[in-house]
Amino acid sequence: MLQWCLLVSIVFHTISSQEIDETITYTQCTDGYQWDPERQQCRDIDECETIPDACKGEMKCINHYGGYLCLPKTAVVFLNNVTTAPPLVPGHVPVPTRRSYPILPHYQQRRCPHGFTLNEQNQCKDVNECETSAPCDHQCFNIVGSFICQCDQGYELNPDKVTCRDVDECAYSSYMCQYQCINEPGRYSCLCPEGYKLLGSRMCQDINECEGGSVCEEQEKCWNYHGGYRCYPRNPCHEPYTQMSENRCVCPAANAACHDQPYSYVYKYMNVRSDRSVPSDIFQIQATSVYPNTFNTFQIISGNEGEFYLRQTSNVSAMLVLVKPLTGPKEYIVDLEMLTVNAIMNYRTVSVLRLTIVVGPYSF
Question: What is the 3-state secondary structure (H, E, C) of the chain?
């Protein structure tokens, strides 16, 4: 808003026959200017300095001749052709020069910039776009002169900074889920294979089907392994062996069919995850009875195609070592022989531990 500085000079002539002519001059400046008695001219008032909080709402104050502007802080104002007002000449109404403000056209037309609206006080007021137009897909945050959109969890902003798109968390990493990752709008979920249940949000835990009961026949016993179960005979003994305990079968020496046969078979079961790291100690065999002057030797007599190695650790024990990775689901039956010799008593006997190794289908 520019106002012209007008100097109004009113001259009154009083004529008296006894007195000399006398001239009285009154000087008045228009709004936005004040009289400078030293320079004898009207001087612009800097409202940005004299009026407290001349501009509201985070606007910046720009002074110009005869008034001031309230503009956004980001507005760029170019000043050129700066001159001073001419001195006052008595009886003359001066037309003061003014500063040139090549501001954006909508400022010159008294329009507010984008994101603002003109209020009743002729001031630019911020527009809350979040309330007036709901421009965002999800969350809208109003800021001075504009707004910011934010997406809900599981979404991200599109390049237009307004609409949201789903984030495919499963594509970020194969470690999001232990088994399978399922992307869903705004979220993802983990699935576990058959034989497992979800533990927490991403891990899979084996289900022990044998705890439910009645999964095997009455004459069978249930053996749980990683990802499943198997049913084995409660009596594993075959002729001419007889069952002495739940997992031990003996061939009596009095039975002629037992000649040249191992004296006993012991049945054990274990499970191994697929792709277990190697080498790895997986099972220990140990003599249950120890006699003086007795020596024991251990070896694998069947069921090994290079996956296992038996390392004797003492006179009465040995360790079965896995030396090649195993991939399931698969079952290995490995016979471990213990030969016991007593030279003083001229005693020799053989016992076999039949180890059934069930390899699960997964590495967990």
Answer: CCCCCCCCCEEEEECCCCCCCEEEEECCCCCCEEEECCCCEEEECCHHHHCCCCCCCCEEEEEECCEEEEEECCCCCCCECCCCCCCCCCCCCCCCCCCECCCCHHHHCCCCCCCEEECCCCCEEECCHHHHCCCCCCEEEEECCEEEEECCCCEEECCCCCCEEECCHHHCCCCCCCCEEEEECCEEEEECCCCEEEECCCEEEECCHHHHCCCCCCCEEEEEECCEEEEEECCCCCCCCEEEECCEEECCCCCHHHCCCCCEEEEEEEEECCCCCCCEEEEEEECCCCCCCEEEEEEEEECCCCCEEEEECCCCEEEEEECCCCCCCEEEEEEEEEEEEECCCCEEEEEEEEEEEEECCCCC
Distance from C-alpha of 68 to C-alpha of 74, rounded to nearest angstrom = 17
CB atoms within 10 A of CB 154: 16
Count CB neighbours of 72 within 10 A. Answer: 20
Among residues of the chain, what percentage have pLDDT more than 90? 62
> 26-78: per-residue pLDDT in tens?
456 877 888 888 888 888 899 899 998 888 877 888 887 778 888 887 765 64
Residue 170 phi/psi, 5-degree rounding, is -65, -25
With 0-12 / 13-18 / 19 or more C-beta atoms within 10 angstroms meaning exposed / middle / buried, residue 277 is exposed
